[in-house]
Amino acid sequence: MDKFPTFHCLINQKDEGYDADIQLFFTREYELAMEVSRLIELDNDSIQYSRILKFIQSFENFLITGEKPDDFQFLKTLPSVKGWKDDYNIIQSRNRVSRLLFRAVLKTVEVMYYYEKMSKKDDYKHRFLPEYFEAFWIMRDVFYQRALDTYKNKIILSKILLF
């Protein structure tokens, strides 16, 4: 092999190198989708993980085909929090769901990073619109709130069991 291989990008219809930010965006988006899929199995709360996963999938389809993604307004009705507190308590907790939710927060931040980066590139900015960035912004805060709730609930249960 004399040159590094490329892949054909369906959004801009060009051959791209594997170091392209678009490749990294999709990689992070898949990682986020995998975390949400795990949460569907492990966290039986009504946070609506299935709808979140469906939105992520429909957004990816939008990037490739231009077909409007699912509505994400339901995210605005879910409990959320601005700012991080107790992050290291969550990381160090014995609550697997809390830690997985915090990982989903971090994956969402990575998706947001590459999303914003792609929104500045001429070949991609027609699909990476601020209105859909908002969905990931809210998603991050929803995941963090749920991480806090599950972490604090575990602490309360532990205290109750001690008495």
Q: Whole-Å distance between the termini?
A: 68 Å
The proportion of residues in beta strands is: under 5%
> SSE order, as H and E?
EEHHHHH
Strand order of the largest sheet: 1-2
pLDDT under 50 segments (min length 5)?
157-163
Gyration radius (Cα, Å) is 18 Å
Q: What is the residue-mean pLDDT, rounded to a whole number?
A: 89
Q: Biggest β-sheet: count, sense, barrel?
A: 2 strands, antiparallel
Tell the overall outline: globular
Number of strands: 2
What is the fold's blueprint, element by element?
Blueprint: E1 6-9, E2 14-17, H1 21-42, H2 49-65, H3 87-92, H4 96-118, H5 130-162
Antiparallel strand pairs: 1-2
Helix pairs in contact: 1-2, 1-4, 4-5
Outline the structure in words.
The protein is mainly α and 163 residues long. It is 62% helix and 5% strand. It has helices at 21-42, 49-65, 87-92, 96-118, 130-162; strands spanning 6-9, 14-17. A two-stranded antiparallel sheet has the order 1-2. A hairpin with a 4-residue loop joins β1 (6-9) and β2 (14-17). α1 packs antiparallel against α4. The longest helix has 33 residues, at 130-162. The radius of gyration is 18 Å and the shape is globular. The protein starts with 5 loop residues before the first strand and ends with a helix.
